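## Example pair
The file below holds two records. Each record gives the amino-acid sequence first, followed by its structure token line.
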Amino acid sequence: MENWKNILISPSTPIIETMKIIDKFATQIAVVRDEQDRALGTITDGDIRRGLLKGIPTENCASEIMNKNFSYAQEGATRSEILAKMRSKKISCIPILDAEKRIVNLIHLHDLEESGNKENQVVILAGGMGTRLGELTMDCPKPLLKIGNSPILENIIQHFKQHGFSNFQFAVNYKSEMIEEYFNDGSKWGAQINYIKENTRLGTAGPLSLLDKAKIKDSFIVMNGDLLTTANFTQLLEFHNEHKHAATMCVRQYDIKIPYGVISLEGGNIIQIEEKPTKSFFVNAGIYVFSPKVLDLVPKNQFYDMTTFFQDLVANGHTTGVFPLHEYWIDIGQLDDLNRAREDIAKTE
């Protein structure tokens, strides 16, 4: 792999810098090495997300989240041996080490096998009325509002296409004819687009009851049609399948700064005063992955939201998990959000 030395980091490299390196070079891995280039451990996108879930600050050293028991291949191993190990370990990148455990190369699965388009379906929830945007959505559905030179929904399609997804189901309701006229069958974008038409508003999970279950053979992604993100959808799908979840919810860390001193009491006595603390929570990011079996739980053609869906999944004994997002993400719910998204896009064009 070319430029593999760019992903070598020291144990003291901050986690936040490690995140940037993984994102910049799209390797999905960084290798922690000592001064002699001997590999000490690896850090994957999954290691970072697990660290975030544990509350480890991103200013801390990379060594706190690295995997010391990492998989690697010996220098001189054949292509078939390396490929077999990567498939058995279900990993997409593997470092190549010499006899002294010095890293001499990094092999990506793409280097060893063909990487065709993914067959997984992507469901985009594009039926909302966008009332919080006022007059902007009186004559135009929110997914068609432009961010830069393209509508929100087109930006979403293009990002999914970058990760090999080309099969889309658009759940539409409000001004659906405008969305269908703009995107048609999706061939203009090298995609296949089908439309799920809601005759009445079905919420964020209800439209899933209209899917043709016979065509949903693999895990599928569901995403709100008013989001912009640079999330790695390939890693999201791999995470979901690796953990064998019935449902995976993407989450964002949301911080709330309390502008007062917070008092802790015990029996009417003050035991602690915390001055203007910041409290952190994980919030729903509006992106999900589901296994086909969960569709049986969705009531047919009824209003049903994702919160209730996940509660029902848990109540019925299904395994559910979260995938923390550290990439760019914005929910275009209000005018300020729309303007901020446009400013962000303008910086990249």
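Second record, same layout:
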Amino acid sequence: MTSVNLRSDNVAGVAPEVMDAIIAANHGSSPSYGSDPLTDGLNAKFGALFGRACFVQPVFTGTATNALSLSLLAPGWGAILCSETAHIHDSECGAVELQTGGAKLVPLRQSDGLIKAEVLEEALTQTRWGNTSVAPPKVLSVAQATELGTVYQPGQLAGLADLAHRFGLKFHMDGARFANAVAHLGCSPAEITCDVGIDVLSFGGTKNGCLCAEAVVCFDEALSEEVRYRARKMGQVASKMRFVSAQLHALLEDNRWLKFAGHANAMATRLSTGLSQLQNVELLHPVDANEVFVSIPEAMRSALTSEGFGFYDRGGGHVRMVTAFNTRAEDVDAFIASAARAQERGDQ
């Protein structure tokens, strides 16, 4: 039995405040299919968060959020540029291709999960524009935080946006861990989205204390009608949508989304700091958010597992640990102590 599970932030439970909001929404009756006051109030709630008009569609899963977001931006005959480590490319079973009607995903090389401006520029300048033999790039998609736990600086995003828009591309952000990125940067949400040219944001809630709540956030009013129809066609409009929307309201209330993410980030930093002091443990990527990637000897991995610690084994001696809104400092310290004991025993 795994007693401390750091395999993913998806293994964490639901924040009590979010569960309370679901229970509160269960009193009485309410209009169905998103016509309820909670769902109707999301535009204003997110508008206050970003300091500008937003058009929000709540959905149930991160995969659906990305697929719906990109279906608004990419034609079926176009291409979507993304990182080679992007979840839309290697973890979402072709959902984006399906919902866009065939748009081609083109993975670009990355450095610690980040697409560099020069890589994007090379891809765009080498495109055979106007040649119908190839799918022309129509969208750039980045993850913030990235799948490797790193975070783009606002200036990096602005540079990518400038290139993308110069070549006529739309700009999408996969924000499954958007809260962790904002907490790390200490900036406003707008500074790394609408202010730097993001057209549509996939806003994550489930990895940050929600039960099953994400949101497609459109910064362009022209998409406000289409997103509603596409969501319905995808089966992402629940008859009792108020229970999804209630989670998002609770998450944003009292700045909980940033408090939860800030705690998760702090626990990841604590974990990476402790592990990096051990021999034969190598930190593979900078720890900006709540994911820690390390190389650990096989015997140490076995010792951790036998003592009830869970992590994601990526093969080749590389493992990933992910902290969450409710990760306890004593559990992080226990994980480090277990690894240290294995080192003292000479487990290699």
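Notes on the second record: The chain has two domains: 4-11+257-344, 16-254. Residues 4-11+257-344 form a domain with the Aspartate Aminotransferase, domain 1 fold (CATH 3.90.1150.10).
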